[in-house]
Specification:
Structural class: mainly alpha
Number of helices: 6
Number of strands: 3
Oligomer: single chain
Strand content: 5-15%
Order of helices and strands: HEHEHHEHH
Distance between the termini: 34 Å
Largest sheet: 3 strands, antiparallel
Shape: globular
Strand order of the largest sheet: 1-3-2
Length: 157
C-alpha cells in the first residue's frame, strides 16, 4: 500500500473551483511543485499510463525521442519527482501523474508558462547545485502563490 500525504489527497479529491482556465503543465518535476503550491480546487491530476499516446508525445517533445515510454522510464520519472520534492522538504507526490492547474482568466496559458519558467531560471547562479535548485523552487512557489492568490508552501514563517 502506498501512503499519500494528506495535502496530496486533498488535491486529488477536491472539486475544481468554478472559474478559470485549465493549463496542462509540462511533464517535468517543477510541474509537481506548481501543482502542490496551487493546492486543492486548483489542480487536476491524471494518472499516466503506459501506451498513453499523450504521455509518449509529451516525453518525445520534452526529450526529443521517438519511442514509447517503458515501465522502467515511468518509474524513474516518478522516483526523480519524489526525490525533487523531498529535497525541498515537501511530501512525495502520487506516482506517475500529469498535472493541470486552474489559472485565472486574466492570465493566458502562455503567460503563466512564461512566468513560471522565468522564475525557475533566475539570473543569479549560486555555487552549490542544491542551493540553486532550492532557490529556483522558492522563486517558483512565490510566483505561483502570487498569481493564484494561495499560500506559498516554501515561505519561511
Amino acid at each position: 500500500m502506498t501512503f499519500i500525504d494528506s495535502r496530496w489527497a486533498e488535491i486529488l479529491e477536491a472539486h475544481p473551483l468554478p472559474t478559470g482556465r485549465w493549463a496542462t503543465l509540462p511533464l517535468i518535476d517543477r510541474s509537481t511543485l506548481v501543482a502542490y503550491t496551487a493546492g486543492p480546487g486548483r489542480v487536476r491530476g491524471e494518472r499516466l499510463l503506459l501506451g498513453d499516446e499523450a504521455l509518449d508525445d509529451m516525453v518525445r517533445h520534452d526529450h526529443r525521442r521517438r519511442s514509447a515510454v517503458s515501465v522502467d522510464e515511468l518509474e524513474d520519472m516518478s522516483d526523480e519527482t519524489r526525490r525533487y520534492m523531498r529535497d525541498l522538504g515537501l511530501p512525495a507526490p502520487p506516482s506517475a501523474m500529469r498535472w493541470s492547474v486552474l489559472i485565472p482568466e486574466r492570465i493566458s496559458t502562455a503567460e503563466f508558462d512564461r512566468l513560471i519558467a522565468t522564475a525557475a531560471n533566475p539570473q543569479e547562479i549560486l555555487q552549490d547545485p542544491r542551493e540553486d535548485a532550492a532557490h529556483s523552487a522558492r522563486a517558483v512557489t512565490r510566483t505561483v502563490a502570487r498569481l493564484l492568490g494561495v499560500p506559498d508552501p516554501l515561505a519561511k514563517p
